[in-house]
Design brief:
Elements (H helix, E strand, L loop, with lengths): L9 H4 L36 E3 L14 H7 L13 H12 L1 E5 L2 E4 L10 E7 L8 E6 L4 E6 L4 H8 L11 E7 L2 H7 L3 H22 L2 E3 L7 H8 L7 E10 L3
Antiparallel strand pairs: 1-6, 2-3, 4-5, 4-7, 5-6, 7-9, 8-9
Helix pairs in contact: 2-6, 3-6, 4-7, 5-6
Amino acid sequence: MKDHPTWSIPQLRSFLKDTIRKEVDFSQTGQSQGVPMPPLQKPVLPGARLVDLPAPNGWQGVPDIGLAAAVAQRRSRRSYLPDALTLDEVSFPLWATQGLRGTGSGRAFRHVPSAGCRHALETYLVALRVGGLEPGVYRYLPLSHQLVFEFTEDGLGEKLSNALFDQTFASRAAVTFVWAAIPYRMEWRYGRVSHKVIALDAGHVCQNLYLACEAIGAGTCAIGAYDQEALDELLRLDGEDEFAIYAAPVGKVGK
């Protein structure tokens, strides 16, 4: 066997392989044991402030540029105009990344694939310049196509870029999408196999964001390098049962 540097030892590479499935006793998962299915989305506290989002197919200022054009134009963009995004322009990528196309048998079918239709991700928005939204942190509610206001605090943009290892373009974006994983949503069905497919699911979601951004004259750049504790603390996540795994700032770009 070839020598490996410490960061590429075979044990770490095994995460990319589908070998662990052979070791898992699926009869011990929550689903097989008759444990009730986890909720499809986090609950909303009584009295929480809700924001109704513009309905699908009724968005203003979201042209149909065609799939071929969106794919051809897609790229990572880190320079943004100071313009705000409209609520329609935020509603469309939320729908494209985690919106519903139907429900049934306790499952929510969305516009992105997910292993076993488990959809273990929650979408948070760090909104800095969005028309109709107070600057702050919001969470998307795909079952009702709404936002729930979580909190606001001073210096939110700077704190966000600090949590993203000083990638300052995030503080210049109009809004940053942050996806957090609730692992048990997937573990309930797949046990130890869950964690690879949660990472795959995040990739599906972010690619749809890239394509949606092309339609609204915006750009994004996926961020996988962040300070885990700082980002979880910023979003007020517990870091155990829910934690951030991916981020993508979004802002208007020049033609």
